[in-house]
Automatic annotation (TrEMBL):
Domain of life assignment: Bacteria
GO CC term, one of those recorded: cytoplasm
Pfam assignment, any one: DUF34_NIF3
Binding site for a divalent metal cation: H65, H66, D104, H228, E232
Assembly and binders: Homohexamer.
Record's keyword annotation contains Metal-binding: yes
Name this polypeptide is given: GTP cyclohydrolase 1 type 2 homolog
GO molecular function: metal ion binding
C-alpha cells in the first residue's frame, strides 16, 4: 500500500520544502499521511474547478503549484470560499499539497518544464541559487537554430495551453532568436538578469508596462509575455512524472484538464495594427 506520506516524500525529494521562499506556504494543507493513495491529480490552482475534477476522477490527493492560503488565516469556515474548499476536500477524503517556490528553483523545476515545452535545450539557471549553482530562478536555453521573433512567438503560443489572453511579444518581429531566458510565473523582477545574460528573448508572465518599456529602451532582449497559468501548467506533467517514476503502476497520476486562468475574454480592437 502506498500512503500519502510515501507520495509526499517523493515530491519533497524532488522539490525540497526548505528551498521555498520564507514568505511562501508550501507543504500539506489537509490530509492524513497514513491514508492510502492510488490516484493523484496535479494542477496549477487549487480552486473549485480543480476540486470538482478531483472528486470526479476519484483522486485521494491534489498536488497544486499555487498555495490555497498564502497568507495566514485564523479560521476556515465552510461559508468562506477557501474554507469551503478545505471542508469539501476533507469530506471527500482528498488531501491537498502545495509545491510553489520550492518547485520554481528545483532542478528540474517549473522553468525547466516551460523551456522543454518551448523546445529549448537548457544550459543553466537564469539566477543561480547561492551555494547550488545548478538550481535557482528561471532558465537559459537554446533553440536548435535561430528564428525570427514573430516565428518564435508563434512557437510559444502553439506550445502552451490556450488562453483567452494568448501570447504577446515586444521587440523587432524580425529579430533573430536563438538564446532564450524563461521564467515560469511572474518574472519581471528578472528583467535585468535576462539583459545581463545576453539572451535574444525572455519568456515569462505578468510583465508590466513601465518595466517592459524601460527594459526595451535600454536595449534589452525581446520580450514574450504569456498568461501566468499557461507558463506554469507544463510543470504539472513534470511533477506527475516524479510520482509515476517513484511508484510505477501502484499510483495513477492525472494532470488537470481544467483551464484555471482567470481571464475569460480577449478582444483586439478592430482599429489596431498588430503583427502575427
Amino acid at each position: 500500500m502506498t500512503t500519502l506520506g510515501d507520495v509526499l516524500a517523493a515530491l519533497e525529494a524532488a522539490y525540497p520544502p526548505a528551498t521555498a521562499e520564507p514568505w511562501d506556504a508550501v507543504g500539506l494543507v489537509c490530509g492524513d499521511r497514513a491514508e492510502p493513495v492510488t490516484r493523484v491529480l496535479f494542477c496549477v490552482d487549487p480552486v473549485e474547478s480543480t476540486v470538482d475534477e478531483a472528486v470526479a476522477v476519484g483522486a485521494q490527493l491534489v498536488v497544486a503549484h499555487h498555495p490555497l492560503m498564502l497568507r495566514g488565516v485564523t479560521g476556515v469556515p465552510a461559508d468562506d470560499p477557501k474554507g469551503g474548499l478545505v471542508h469539501r476536500l476533507i469530506r471527500s477524503g482528498i488531501a491537498l499539497y502545495t509545491a510553489h517556490t520550492n518547485a520554481d528553483v528545483a532542478n528540474p523545476g517549473v522553468s525547466d518544464a516551460l523551456a522543454e515545452a518551448i523546445g529549448l535545450r537548457v544550459t543553466g539557471p537564469l539566477v543561480p541559487a547561492d551555494g547550488a549553482p545548478d538550481t535557482g530562478a528561471g532558465r537559459i536555453g537554446e533553440l536548435d537554430r535561430p528564428e525570427p521573433l514573430r516565428d518564435f512567438t508563434r512557437r510559444v503560443a502553439e506550445a502552451l495551453p490556450a488562453t483567452a489572453w494568448g501570447v504577446r511579444a515586444a521587440g523587432d518581429p524580425d529579430r533573430p532568436v536563438r538564446r532564450v531566458a524563461v521564467c515560469g510565473g511572474a518574472g519581471d523582477s528578472y528583467l535585468t538578469a535576462a539583459a545581463r545574460a545576453g539572451v535574444d528573448a525572455y519568456v515569462t508572465a505578468d510583465l508590466r508596462h513601465h518595466p517592459a518599456g524601460e527594459h526595451l529602451a535600454a536595449g534589452g532582449p525581446a520580450l514574450v509575455d504569456v498568461a501566468h497559468w499557461a507558463s506554469e501548467q507544463p510543470w504539472c506533467g513534470q511533477a506527475a512524472h516524479v510520482v509515476r517514476a517513484a511508484f510505477g503502476g501502484t499510483v495513477e497520476v492525472l494532470v488537470s484538464t481544467r483551464r484555471t486562468d482567470p481571464w475569460t475574454l480577449g478582444v483586439t480592437s478592430p482599429n489596431s495594427e498588430h503583427t502575427e
